[in-house]
């Protein structure tokens, strides 16, 4: 068995709320699936090893390895399986026993039971864990204890407004304000599908953050019909029902949330600790009657010690009316069809509303408002740029051919507040509206409302 050590708290009451007292001193942790209760020794802990002891089934062992893999994707942890014997003992040992009414685990310690995880053998809850179900959540929860995580309502108590499964897999509360004594109230497939934001932050405080996970340019997408997550097109396993309830940790690169396969309106938020909602139907019911649903579908992990490598930079909306919010990085927000609202916030962002009457708020930084077609802002459904900063922001029209009368892609000519003179490619700004004529008929082929009193050629990429 490895040594244990204490560590410092973060000073954040929400993260510290799931931190225990000790962690394993080594980041390379061993685990085993003992085949015999005698391997635990005599006078063991609460006599789990002699109360209808059983080794984990093949399916359960696979789930335990999956739980360990999930922890290793967010923290600097490696796990090595040992063959448990009378003389060789792993740090984490997984077993079954009827001594526990459901499941429990022991925190890291130098006692013989330190790091041991137990599941009830007879009640049948843990026979076949599936993502989104109770058993899946419990495997992650108990493994968390074995690594040093604690319940939010014990020890360093987490503020009540975040003590729920929405924020920590270690919580006893299904939803904010729910009971921590009467048991979970979730629908059958309405449990966490991953570690949640404070679990990730806490285990990273203990063992460091793993920035090798999806450290390249990664695309994340989800199925509107099954809830399955895809990473660079590769399926990550279907949940038990069409629900999405998870937190994304990403180690680096320029990354994208791609919701182009969604038809309904989405609420997309790229800020650390914030949530994206794909649809009401995919929200986990935290009370089975539907009176309490999760705050969102997809949460962004918190930054570890302010390291921005974990940011998700880009988002692609669906064909509905989307609300998209960036973060402090350099974001590319693409609204798609529908009347979208795009908020760039800080950073030098690119905002592309696509079709529909879109509204833009670039925020701080040198932002680009990108147009690819005259159909992106028709006279009848024109876009609005609410906070254009002259001399800093730019309106990019380079993808639009300014003249349908000439071959190739022609550049626009900005004529200020003058009226169109019948020359294809003219661009003017009158009474707060930018208009472009691409065929020389003196009629605007697209119009964009901009909340400024004047514009100059330098405000465009023509």
TrEMBL record:
SMART domains: ZnMc. It holds the Pfam family Peptidase_M10. It comes from the Bacteria. One of its GO terms (biological process) is proteolysis. Its main location: secreted. Residues 20-209 form the Peptidase metallopeptidase domain. Its cofactor is Ca(2+). One of its GO terms (cellular component) is extracellular space. The keyword Metal-binding applies. InterPro entries: Hemolysin-typ_Ca-bd_CS (IPR018511), Hemolysn_Ca-bd (IPR001343), MetalloPept_cat_dom_sf (IPR024079), Pept_M10_metallopeptidase (IPR001818), Peptidase_M10B_C (IPR013858), Peptidase_Metallo (IPR006026), Serralysin-like (IPR034033), Serralysin-like_metalloprot_C (IPR011049). Keywords: Hydrolase, Metal-binding, Metalloprotease, Protease, Repeat, Secreted, Zinc. One of its GO terms (molecular function) is metalloendopeptidase activity. It is found in: Secreted. Belongs to the peptidase M10B family. This is Peptidase metallopeptidase domain-containing protein. It comes from Microvirga ossetica.
